[in-house]
Amino acid sequence: MARQRQKGGRGRAPEPVAAPVGGGRAELVPDRDRPRGWTLLLDGAPQSHVDLDDPAYLDFEYQRRLGHIADLAAPSGRPVHAVHLGGGAFTLARYIAATRPRSTQQVIEVDTELIRFVREELPLDRSWRIRVRGDDARAGLRKVPDGWADLIIADVFDGARTPAHLGSTEFAGEVRRALRPGGLYAANVADGPPLAYLRARIATTGTVFPELCLIADPAVLRGRRFGNAVLLASDLPLPVAELTRRAAGDPHPARVEHGRALADFTGGAVPVTDATAVASPAPPPDAFH
Questions:
Q1: Quick one: pLDDT at residue 143?
Q2: Going by C-beta distance under 8 Å and a sequence separation of 6 or more, which residues neighbour residue 158?
Q3: CB 230 within 8 A of CB 216
Q4: Are 220 and 252 in contact (CB under 8 A)?
Q5: What are phi and psi of 65, to 5 degrees?
Q6: Which H or E run includes 60?
Q7: Residue 188: pLDDT band by 50, 70, 90 thresholds?
Q8: pLDDT at residue 36 above 80?
Q9: How far is CA 279 from each of CA 7, 164, 185, 236, rounded to the nearest angstrom?
Q10: % of the chain with per-residue pLDDT over 90
């Protein structure tokens, strides 16, 4: 796999490194404010941020929200079983390894060339119990034993869109099968006005999980811009009050919708099956500027 790298001289800041991968062109761009911080881009779209010196640091808004969920998946510091659908730069797997030592994690990423690129440029600590598998997210999830996971995080994009087969009732049923009772399922959902895809994902997930909440920037929820929302689901009551407190205290505060407010937001959205599911919408050209 050919790489393009501009090496800095002695004492100079690191320079970007890029390589072709299965999903297009991957690039790692150094964070000028953090000596060993890097942002992963795929075809120019930001995917992940990693600080090799501080894996507990989460830079992206949606990843901070997923981090809050990981913090609440079990009592503080207790190891968990976590499944990550979509690899990126393994940001959340690194976070859980740092904040919950001895956790056992599986990362399922279809792009094996991206896996090699990230592992070579941003190595995982060998003491972390993280297994990375090259597989389709849904096919890989089928291999997870019943009730094994405390936490399943879905952050899967083909380019800048989530594939259709990861947004159906059948997929949600597979997630619930792999979760222990009371386990948490968190999905990163990207959408923009009129938010039809996001509403359909909520309705679809609600056919399988009785407890739902949504964490997002108020501007995204009002349909003012394209952005990320984190959908959280479980078969037992969710830690809504604590999530609300944490989301409100973030550098970019988010709102948590739950109960009647979430039902009102979802409106008359219809759940989708494998036969009717579609991929998430493509972001507008200026979404990442």
A1: 98
A2: 23, 279
A3: yes
A4: no
A5: -70, -40
A6: none
A7: very high
A8: yes
A9: 39, 4, 19, 29
A10: 91
In one-letter notation, the amino acid at residue 166 is L
Count CA atoms closer than 13 A to 6's CA, side-chain side: 9
Q: Do 181 and 148 form a contact (C-beta atoms < 8 A)?
A: no
Distance CA 186, CA 289 (A): 26
Nearest to 159, CA basis, from 42, 62, 48: 42
Residue 1's pLDDT is 44
- SS3 of residue 199 by DSSP: helix
The per-residue pLDDT for 3 is 58
3-class SS at 221? helix
- Shortest CA distance to 77 belongs to which of 98, 93, 52, 58? 98
Q: What one-letter code names the amino acid at 4?
A: Q
86 and 155 Cβ atoms separated by less than 8 Å: yes
**What is the spatial distance between Cα 97 and Cα 83, in angstroms, rounded to a whole number?**
12
Q: What does the alpha-carbon distance between residue 145 and residue 207 come to, in Å, rounded to a whole number?
A: 22
Q: Which helix (H) or strand (E) holds 261?
A: helix 259-266
Neighbouring C-beta atoms of residue 235, cutoff 10 Å: 16
For 39-50, what is the mean pLDDT?
Answer: 94
In the chain, what is the straight-line distance between the N-terminal and C-terminal CA atoms, in Å? 29
Alpha carbon distance 80, 102 (integer Å): 8
**pLDDT score recorded for residue 288:** 58
> b/e string for 269-285 if b means 16 or more Cβ within 10 A?
bebbeeeebebbbebee
Residues 6+ apart with CB under 8 A from 66: 58, 92, 153, 155, 186, 188, 230
